[in-house]
Amino acid sequence: MKKARVGVLISGRGSNMMALVEAAKAADCPADIVCVVSNRADAAGLAFAEANGIATQVIDHKAYASREAFDRALGDYLQSQQVDIVACAGFMRIITPALIRRFPGRMLNIHPSLLPAYKGLHTHERALADGATEHGCTVHLVTDELDDGPIVLQARVPVLPGDTADKLAARVLVEEHRIYPQALALVAERVKN
Ligand code: GRF
């Protein structure tokens, strides 16, 4: 079975990356996670990737003079690994067209809100401050606009009485781990055919 080659970009904990890696272990999964790249050497997720026999690479954004130069280095590495699809998973850098244009329609991101609501940071705090009754997460294709681009999948959760940002984030994260592998499989099916 031909599988789409996927590179995952992380900056920290990497729990979404772990969900993608676990899902890709299924023989019938159309995605193969071939490398994990972090802009931070201390990203906790790197050890998990290594333990799972996945190539890891640290590309420190601070070593580059501009966002574009950093993105060129990312793109060069991902293409050296013959990556078909890039999955951003808690990757805390703004991505420029210098990288996006190298993976047109083949770059995914997970965002912890029901886009187009709450683009940017602190989504759970903002949803609570607004008195939102529901919240959730979105997997979307990456375009030149931050947290924009065609939606692949969304999942909703209720906002419950007594919720804190941490409680709400934990409820959303369960759904992130459920829909990101599904969304990646959908895109991988399209890309490999
Ligand atoms: C997730 O909530 C994701 O939606 C957001 O950053 C968080 C990353 O968590 N973009 P993890 O590194 O995948 O555990």
Structure explained in plain terms:
The protein is of the alpha/beta class. It has one domain (4-192): Rossmann fold (3-Layer(aba) Sandwich). It contains six helices and seven strands. Strands 3-2-1-4-5-6-7 form a seven-stranded mixed beta sheet, sandwiched between helices. Helix 1 (15-24) runs parallel beside helix 6. The longest helix has 28 residues, at 165-192. It is globular, with a radius of gyration of 16 Å. The structure holds 5-O-phosphono-beta-D-ribofuranosylamine. 5-O-phosphono-beta-D-ribofuranosylamine (GRF) is lined by residues 10, 12-16, 89-90, 110-112, 173, 176.
Write down the domain tally.
Answer: 1
**What is the number of strand segments?**
7
CATH class placement: Alpha Beta
Return the structural class: alpha/beta
CATH topology (level 3) name: Rossmann fold
